[in-house]
Write a structure and sequence with these properties.
By secondary structure, this protein is α+β, with helices and mostly antiparallel strands. It contains 9 helices and 5 strands. It has 2 domains: about 90 residues; about 120 residues, Cytidine Deaminase, domain 2. It is elongated, with a radius of gyration of 21 Å.
Length: about 230
């Protein structure tokens, strides 16, 4: 009984610290501990939180881990794993809702905003995924679409397909993005060749390629920042 009272008291102190200081008032494992306390109401979640952080290193990696991997940890049921996975998908859902529901009124203001979205969307994918961001003349987002999946090479990327979508959306600028499941975001020779070929192709139809971003779990590579585009 005493141990249970101590656990409840500790949780209450965490909640109060969060309510007063916010996210930055807690350590990462404490944030995870607090989150788990809502789905594990009668057990201490401190050691479980520390164990998860020790294995995944970051909160983001915990939230983006697949359900089967999470269920391998003692104390994590499928229900809890789904809950953590859902939290990890929230930022992605919120970003996409802005695109789909705000009457195309979301302006791409910062690179960080885009990178965070891409990390959540494709940074943890096990297969390569090629996405295109379509923008109007004011750099407002029209649409963000997955056009190709699988190994990205010349035979897989069809300029005609991308052009069809550009014309459909009446886009004036586009951003390419794809992930490297290995986590190494350095561009391959094929990545560079495809990008240069695409840039040349779309100049002919007066469409500007703003950037091509290679995304990984913990890093990204920007063709614009590196002077390739």
């Amino acid at each position: 009984m005493s141990k249970n009272k101590n656990c409840l008291g500790h949780r209450e102190r965490l909640r109060k610290r969060y309510s007063i200081l916010g996210y930055h008032g807690l350590l990462d494992y404490e944030i995870l501990e607090l989150i788990l306390s809502f789905v594990i109401p009668r057990k201490d979640t401190k050691e479980l939180s520390k164990n998860l952080m020790s294995n995944f290193n970051t909160l983001e990696n915990v939230f983006k881990a697949d359900i089967k991997t999470l269920c391998k940890f003692n104390g994590i049921t499928e229900r809890i794993a789904i809950y953590l996975k859902l939290l990890g998908d929230l930022s992605l859902c919120l970003f996409e809702d802005k695109i789909n529901k705000q009457n195309l009124n979301l302006e791409l203001k910062t690179k960080d905003q885009l990178i965070n979205y891409l990390k959540n969307n494709i940074g943890f994918c096990k297969n390569e995924t090629f996405k295109v961001l379509f923008l109007d003349t004011s750099n407002k987002i029209i649409s963000f679409e997955t056009l190709f999946t699988g190994t990205i090479d010349k035979s897989a990327i069809y300029p005609r397909k991308i052009l069809e979508r550009v014309l459909f959306h009446n886009a004036r600028s586009i951003v390419f993005a794809h992930n490297h499941p290995s986590g190494n975001t350095s561009p391959s020779r094929k990545d560079i060749e495809i990008t240069k070929a695409m840039e040349k192709f779309f100049k002919l139809v007066d469409v500007n390629i703003i950037d091509h971003i290679i995304i990984g779990k913990n890093s990204y590579f920007s063709f614009l920042e590196e002077g390739i585009i």
